[in-house]
């Protein structure tokens, strides 16, 4: 693992599998009466959110607290940012507080990269979503969910998604989730197909490591997982499709379309869902839909990322960042080993 997690494209196959396997270990904590490990005791993590969030922010906070880290929650609303404070000044304020990691969500693409490489702060930086660019932990939790469903919880350890066919449907143009998933799923060996109106595909998508299709009904019978994306109206300044009804007719997933999928195939959605547009209530509430499962898995994945980036069971010391564990060293650095110290 590198020092920061900025983009899913930065992860090697071994890095990604290491995170997924570590998340399996972390998921066992949720089954315990006391859902807590002392792994990051003495470390401080700040959640720096410049955009609204429910699932990601709460998921990171739950992960940090389950690892016994000290947590600082920062939101732009009600802070000095609303008075015009720059990202640099905010970062230097956090640096003065001695934080060990910064989880940042920002409306500007590239903000986490800038923070990690600016020299403003000596802390691990985790991208929790930047503009329309990347959302690496979402891609990791999606891959974790797919591996569990398609390979198996125990059989999946050490495995990737080679040979699986994943279909991503909807507003690819504005989706950092789509970009991150294409990068990570390709790294893990999966075949990815994007299905969207031409107006909702980004310029240059032909160079992405995936296929592009326009007929949803034609790709469903060959899909192992179908990920529906929300139409992000808040990022749109023009009409990208005629009407919501027309969009739902051509690109929405309903019961009839779900019936065309293989029996083992699953339906995914990063949330929040707009029922009746990209997905019907019948599909969203079916046993094949993994939306709630993805939220639960998100806590395990974010625990794994924090554990690997912050040195796991190494002793905490102010501004001392031990090297990240290379792939293959999980046996000596397991969560249970940390708990036994």
Walk me through this protein's architecture.
Its EC number is 2.1.3.2. Pathway: Pyrimidine metabolism; UMP biosynthesis via de novo pathway; (S)-dihydroorotate from bicarbonate: step 2/3. This is Aspartate carbamoyltransferase. It is an enzyme of class 2 (transferase). This protein has 341 residues and is an alpha/beta fold. It has 2 domains: 8-134 and 294-340, Rossmann fold (3-Layer(aba) Sandwich); 136-290, 3-Layer(aba) Sandwich (Rossmann fold), CATH 3.40.50.1370. Helices cover 34% and strands 13% of the residues. The chain contains 12 helices and 9 strands. The protein has helices at residues 13-27, 55-66, 87-96, 111-117, 136-150, 176-187, 216-219, 244-251, 255-258, 281-284, 291-309, 335-340; strands spanning 44-49, 70-75, 101-106, 124-130, 165-169, 191-195, 211-213, 225-228, 266-268. A 5-stranded parallel sheet has the order 7-6-5-8-9, with helices on one face. Strands 2-1-3-4 form a 4-stranded parallel sheet, sandwiched between helices. It is globular, with a radius of gyration of 20 Å.
SSE layout:
Blueprint: H1 13-27, E1 44-49, H2 55-66, E2 70-75, H3 87-96, E3 101-106, H4 111-117, E4 124-130, H5 136-150, E5 165-169, H6 176-187, E6 191-195, E7 211-213, H7 216-219, E8 225-228, H8 244-251, H9 255-258, E9 266-268, H10 281-284, H11 291-309, H12 335-340
Parallel strand pairs: 1-2, 1-3, 3-4, 5-6, 5-8, 6-7, 8-9
Helix pairs in contact: 1-5, 1-11, 2-11, 5-6, 5-11
